[in-house]
Amino acid sequence: MKRRLWFSLIATVVAVIAALAGNIATSNAPILGLDLQGGLSVILAPEEGATGDDLLVVRDLVRSSLERSGVAEPDVRVQGSNIVVDLPGVKDKEEALRSVSVSGIVELRAVVNFTECSASIPAVSTDETIADGRVLGSDGTITVDGDPADEVTPPVDEESIGFLNDEAKTSFRRSAPDPDAPADSDPVGEAPIDLAPTPTPTIAGAEFLPTLDGGALCAGPSQASGEVFERDSASVQLGQFGQFSVSVDLRADGEDAWNGLATQCFNRLASCPSTGVDTDGSGRPGQIAIVLDGIVQSAPVVNVPVFDGSVSITGSFTQEEADQLSDVLNRGAFPVQVTPQETRTVSASAGGDSLRAAIIAGLIGLALVLAFLVAYYRWLALVIIGGLTVWAMAVYSAAAFVSGATNYALSLAGVTGIIVAIGVTVDSYVVFFERMKDEIRNGRTLRNAAPRSFNSTWRTIWSADLVSIIGALILFSLSVGSVRGFALYLGITTMCDLFVCFFFTRPAVLLIARSKFMVGKRAFGLEVASS
User: Fold this and answer.
1) Are strands 106-111 and 288-292 parallel, antiparallel or unpaired?
2) How many Å apart are CA 288 and CA 104, to the nearest integer?
3) What does DSSP say about strands 142-144 and 134-136: parallel, antiparallel, or unpaired?
4) Most CB atoms closer than 10 Å: which of 68, 92, 264, 298?
5) Radius of gyration of the chain, Cα coordinates, nearest whole angstrom
6) What is the distance between the alpha carbons of residues 363 and 357, in angstroms, rounded to a whole number?
7) How far is CA 507 from the centre of its chain?
8) How far apart are the C-alpha atoms of 331 and 68, rounded to whole Å?
């Protein structure tokens, strides 16, 4: 029994010190919030009239996108008719603007023949950059950085993908034409562009749009927006053969719009013609271009005319490309487009002063509590001091781990949660020691009173801590911003209290009670019996 107590005590101390040393050696520290380390604040304004509900939807979508991108605990809130985004730790204004550029409107367009866009070609009198350093020249060729020697054509995606019609899936193909298509087939959507005289366009609103791979395709007018997709429903799936797919749900009020466009493309109507020849020699169905801010993110071939509640896009793309497409589909539900209006630098000086004041107040309060405990519990107060030291090291290591794993920052609200948890931790000692005091008053020895007291009070201690943890979980799940930070660190510190109480305080008190150290000493202002 004694050996197990020593093992628990020593192992706990060694583990906590090792975790702290590892964090210090690797410079792994808790991420500080905007109020403690400063950062940038960006004001987003809607480009057109927006209701309060529209702004709330945009706020939630901006926050979700920022958290997925790795920004530590962004504070996104509606302020009047604008949305304010606080980015802790971000110093570069360009980086801040890139971080909040997540609210572009997603359009769904049919891919049409190049002849439908030919009317716009002569207007290009000089070279025009279309994507990633690639230039669409007035002669219809695409060059890199304007060097004709580097003339290129967009890479051809040679994937060959099969789908089951009853799963209502589309295949993902980039804008390049089918490499196996016969020479006299009608190429769609790829440079180089033939600038020779062409038939008069019949589709109003068709225009050339750049693709992510540096090519270009001709897209018809927008027939639907990203609002056909259920918000935050897009997810990346990994197939059994290692290929990635993106699945997204259709909204009930958007399914008809999507199916209307899909039917046009599947039936190869003039508004969404065939985009080439399939491997069996038949004409391939049309493509739907998913466009964000004028750039084609994906152009899947439609394999079925009607989709029942969801769409799956698959193809030979990487996980990064699948994640990017998933983000585009999720952000497609923005009810209104917002643009950055102002970027301001937020100083950490005010937060630093508040942090210093909070730390000083906490230390003064802790010193007063410890002075009272030493006067009241005498020698056993050494266990409390040791326990609080181990608890503090465990809290620091846990906070550093949580910050690194989840991007939740330590703000002033989190510091407040930690200070509140000090009282919860001290309560555990008070409950335990008061029970021991009652046992000694009843004539029991310290050796006998210690284990009986812990067995009697352990249920009370973990029940009280469990209530605090449940409260922190509820508060964390229902709140946002600084309140969530308070709940997070209140929960972390309370769990650390349970850990320290069982694996440090319990063996420490039981070992002291078994030793001769306390014989003849006053543990609680009471004389400890020697037998």
Assistant:
1) antiparallel
2) 18
3) antiparallel
4) 298
5) 33
6) 10
7) 41
8) 12
Q: Where are the alpha helices (DSSP H) in 211-348?
A: 255-266, 319-331
List Cβ neighbours of 33 (8 Å cut-off, separation of 6 or more).
72, 73, 88, 351, 409, 410, 411, 412, 413, 414, 482, 485
Rounded Cα–Cα distance for residues 303 and 81 (Å): 43
Q: What is the DSSP letter of 503?
A: I
Note the CATH architecture for domain 2-33+348-527: Up-down Bundle (1.20)
Structure tokens at 6: 């020593």
Say which residue the tokens 């716009």 belong to.
Answer: 120
Query: Domain 39-102 carries which CATH code?
Result: 3.30.70.3220
The 10s digit of each residue's pLDDT in 427-486 is: 888 899 889 888 888 878 878 888 999 999 999 999 999 999 999 999 988 876 678 888
Task: Please tell me whether the peptide bond between 192 and the residue prior to it is cis, using omega within 30 degrees of 0.
Answer: yes
Helix extents (H) in 139-273: 255-266
Range(s) within the chain of domains with CATH label 3.30.70.3220:
39-102
Tell me what percent of the chain is helix, strand and coil, each rounded to the nearest 5: 45, 20, 35
pLDDT digits (tens, 9 = 90+) for 82-109: 888 887 766 666 766 666 765 567 888 9
Task: Please identify which residue in the block is written with the tokens 């038949």.
Answer: 282
User: pLDDT of 283-341, one tens digit each?
Assistant: 788 889 888 878 888 888 888 888 888 888 877 778 888 888 887 787 655 667 777 78
Contact 491, 476 (CB under 8 A): yes
Backbone angles phi, psi at 202, to 5 degrees: -110, -10
CA separation for the pair 506, 454 (Å, rounded): 7
Q: How far apart are CA 300 and CA 175, in angstroms?
A: 9
Mean pLDDT across 186-210: 61
Separation CA 63–CA 411 (nearest Å): 17
Question: What is the mean pLDDT of the segment spanning 149-170?
Answer: 37
In sequence order, the β-bridge partners of residue 312 are: 169, 247
What's the predicted TM-score (pTM) here? 0.55
Q: Provide the 3-class DSSP secondary structure of residue 211.
A: strand
Listed residue (174, 58, 140) closest to 105, CA to CA:
58
